[in-house]
């Protein structure tokens, strides 16, 4: 075997070829269309025509190659929307805040009365020193006790579903079914179905306006702070993992029953380098990343940096609460100046669940004269009927009573998904198609060029070794 190998090597050395010989052999066997006609021994006109044609096709190919590469690095994507019907849907969290943050009767009895007398409550963007101060812990306590408690604002609520209702009888809920959180201005707000420990997550498998959650509130508009132009409540329908602070909601007005049809949208976004650049980042004060929580943490960081104190909505910070002077001259201006567009260090969530709301309205108890004892209204309103004339009761309802009904019209979920529309495999497919169409080449043609280079180098080394010997 060794002798055979030695004879084979001697034959290869004897057959060593020049570069021209190797190239001529390659031209005759190349799979690159038109290439052999350029170098074959034929009429010069024919060779020129084939050269022009091949170069033209090569130019078009490289132009299309550049366009394909540019398109790939634009990272385009398509968004698809599909409707998926479900046997049941998780019910969202419902958060409610009174537009009148604090009760006038309580403010007048507190140390904040001088600030109210200055016309600076609710807190405005007046940066002047109030002329007196209240320590942070005491101010926090005053704001908390001056807000309407859930017992004061609550009239009635009903949760009606297949699991909790029998024979169409609604399941009443109570104030202790709500959790409390602090709004931006220190006021108390309340959340139904928060999904936290001790509050089982509710779901619905029935549709229609008669199934779901109904809430009635008494806003006590006569006890509003002067300067409050609107009477009503802000309602925020959100996922349990979303913080309602800084969330957009809608306003419900007294005297009307608001019907809120809820629709579920699940969105999947693409991470970088795609335009949405979804992602997450560790948050100091929240266990689960959400963009809304990130914005709130950035606002808290700005307040902590500028004011060296915290507000009641800022979770998990081991610093003192802002005093009245710090609140007026630093905290409130920082809140007003905070812009989420410029604070763009919070990536979009890669997966989100949104609850979209469609609102319709009807007069709430348009004529109290016909309010019967058997009417499906709260005992509170029936009690008011016994203590007021029909005219006064009608006016009280129009100015104070809010009724909201939340329901699903259909058991469906909209799924919105972003998908790459031009990925690496499509790029390879386009390049391969253009290469084959314009030049009749393939990946193996490129391998032929590599083989040509290696073969030429090998024979040149043989020639050099022969000369030395």
From TrEMBL:
The compartments listed are: Membrane
Pfam families recorded? ASC (PF00858)
Signal peptide annotation: none
Judging by the UniProt lineage, the source's domain of life is: Eukaryota
- Which Gene Ontology cellular component terms are annotated? plasma membrane
UniProtKB keywords: Ion channel, Ion transport, Membrane, Sodium, Sodium channel, Sodium transport, Transmembrane, Transmembrane helix, Transport
Provide the topology term for how it sits in the membrane: Multi-pass membrane protein
InterPro entries, alphabetized: ENaC (IPR001873)
Q: Name one GO molecular function term.
A: ligand-gated sodium channel activity
Residue ranges of the TM segments: 44-62, 435-458
User: PANTHER family annotated for this entry?
Assistant: AMILORIDE-SENSITIVE SODIUM CHANNEL-RELATED
Q: Which family does it belong to?
A: Belongs to the amiloride-sensitive sodium channel (TC 1.A.6) family.
* The protein, known as: Hydra Na channel 2
Origin organism of this chain?
Hydra vulgaris
């Amino acid at each position: 075997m060794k002798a055979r190998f030695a004879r084979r090597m001697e034959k290869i050395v004897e057959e060593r070829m020049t570069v021209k010989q190797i190239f001529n052999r390659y031209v005759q066997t190349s799979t690159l269309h038109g290439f052999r006609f350029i170098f074959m021994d034929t009429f010069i006109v024919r060779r020129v025509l084939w050269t022009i044609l091949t170069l033209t096709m090569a130019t078009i190919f490289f132009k299309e190659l550049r366009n394909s590469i540019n398109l790939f690095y634009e990272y385009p994507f398509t968004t698809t929307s599909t409707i998926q019907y479900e046997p049941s849907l998780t019910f969202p969290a419902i958060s409610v805040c009174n537009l009148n943050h604090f009760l006038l009767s309580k403010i007048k009895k507190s140390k904040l009365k001088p600030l109210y007398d200055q016309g600076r409550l609710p807190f405005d963007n007046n940066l002047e020193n109030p002329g007196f101060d209240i320590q942070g812990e005491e101010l926090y306590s005053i704001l908390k006790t001056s807000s309407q408690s859930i017992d004061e604002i609550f009239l009635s609520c009903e949760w009606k579903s297949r699991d909790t209702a029998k024979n169409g009888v609604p399941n009443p809920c109570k104030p202790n079914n709500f959790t409390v959180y602090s709004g931006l201005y220190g006021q108390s707000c309340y959340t139904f179905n928060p999904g936290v420990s001790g509050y089982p997550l509710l779901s619905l498998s029935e549709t229609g306006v008669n199934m779901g959650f109904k809430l009635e509130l008494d806003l006590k508009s006569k006890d509003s702070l002067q300067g409050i132009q609107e009477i009503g409540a802000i309602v925020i329908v959100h996922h349990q993992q979303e913080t309602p602070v800084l969330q957009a909601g809608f306003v419900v007005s007294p005297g009307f029953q608001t019907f809120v049809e809820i629709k579920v949208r699940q969105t999947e976004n693409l991470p970088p380098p795609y335009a949405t650049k979804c992602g997450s980042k560790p948050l100091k004060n929240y266990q689960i990343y959400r963009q809304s929580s990130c914005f709130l943490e950035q606002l808290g960081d700005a307040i902590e940096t500028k004011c060296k104190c915290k507000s009641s909505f800022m979770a998990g910070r081991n610093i003192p609460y802002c005093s009245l002077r710090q609140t007026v001259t630093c905290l409130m201006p920082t809140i007003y100046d905070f812009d989420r567009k410029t604070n763009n260090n919070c990536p979009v969530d890669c997966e989100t669940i949104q609850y979209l709301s469609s609102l319709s309205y009807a007069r709430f108890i348009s004529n109290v004269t016909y309010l019967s004892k058997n009417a499906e209204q709260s005992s509170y309103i029936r009690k008011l009927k016994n203590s007021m004339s029909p005219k006064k009761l009608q006016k009280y309802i129009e100015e104070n009573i809010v009724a909201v009904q939340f329901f699903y019209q259909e058991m469906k979920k909209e799924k919105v998904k972003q998908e790459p529309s031009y990925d690496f495999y499509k790029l390879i497919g386009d390049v391969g198609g253009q290469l084959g169409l314009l030049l009749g080449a393939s990946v193996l043609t490129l391998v032929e060029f590599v083989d040509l280079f290696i073969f030429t180098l090998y024979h040149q080394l043989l020639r050099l070794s022969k000369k030395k010997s």
